[in-house]
Amino acid sequence: MSKIDQAVSWYGTIHSVAGGEAVADYLKPWHLNIWPKFGPAVGIIGGDLAIDSEIERLRDTDTKATFWGQLSCGASTYGPCQLLVTRLSADDGGPQYAPDQIDGWEGTVGRLPAQPGSQNDALYFVLAGQIPALYGIASADPGIQAVLEQLSGTESTVRIWGELNSKARPVTGTLIDVKRLELISPS
After folding, report:
1. CA distance 134 to 128
2. Count of CB atoms within 10 A of residue 118's CB?
3. Count: domains in the chain
4. Strand 81-90 vs strand 157-166: parallel, antiparallel, or unpaired?
5. How deeply is 17 buried, as exposed, middle or buried, from its count of CB atoms within 10 A (0-12, 13-18, 19+)?
6. Which residues of the chain fall short of a pLDDT of 70?
7. 8 Å CB contact between 149 and 158
8. 119 dihedral zone (left: phi>0; alpha: psi -120 to 50; beta)
9. Which residue among 38, 61, 62, 168 is least enclosed by CB atoms within 10 Å?
């Protein structure tokens, strides 16, 4: 039986795998370059001709893009799941979309050590699901930010509300601005 989920603001690159006469495309999330435990790559197809054309243009290039769509697991041309892309925005000039509203997402908070050229560590959020998705995470509210800092690396499950911005560069090409947080299960 197949499980269907939404993919919201996934950031990565498109690659191809030749198999007989057909070519299968897959999305390699950017975070797999530094966190291979949060994977895997997923098969990818366009939801319409314009998206198919954009996928073809981005295939096997270093151009990163942000993806939205339906994730169907159990029947895929590559990997455990297939992403039917309903919208995408390439870094080389794609549209900037309004932030996505986050309403009660569950997952855990971690910390990425400071990268070269950066003075600060960065927090990330791992969205629970069959295919874990990583997002940068922070809060403009100092109280919520302090809680996020305390929870990082504890494996405690949290539920968050806020706004998800694509084309943000702190950690994973995305950034969730947390407006509300609820501890579900402490570690």
Report:
1. 9
2. 11
3. 2
4. unpaired
5. middle
6. 1-4, 19-23, 33-39, 113-121, 169-171, 187
7. no
8. alpha
9. 62
What tokens appear for 85 in the block? 């892309």
Residue 178 in 3-state DSSP? Answer: strand
Percentages helix, strand, coil for the chain (3-state, rounded to 5) are 15, 50, 35
Instruction: Note whether 65 and 128 are same-domain residues.
Output: no
Q: Using CA atoms, how far apart are residues 138 and 125, in angstroms rounded to an integer?
A: 9
Block residue for tokens 């295919």: 131
Q: 11: domain CATH number?
A: 2.40.50.140
The model's pLDDT over 87-134, given as tens digits with 9 standing for 90+, comes to 999 988 888 889 999 999 999 999 876 555 555 568 989 888 878 888
Strand partners, 85: 46, 69
Expressed as residue numbers, the domain containing 161 is: 100-185
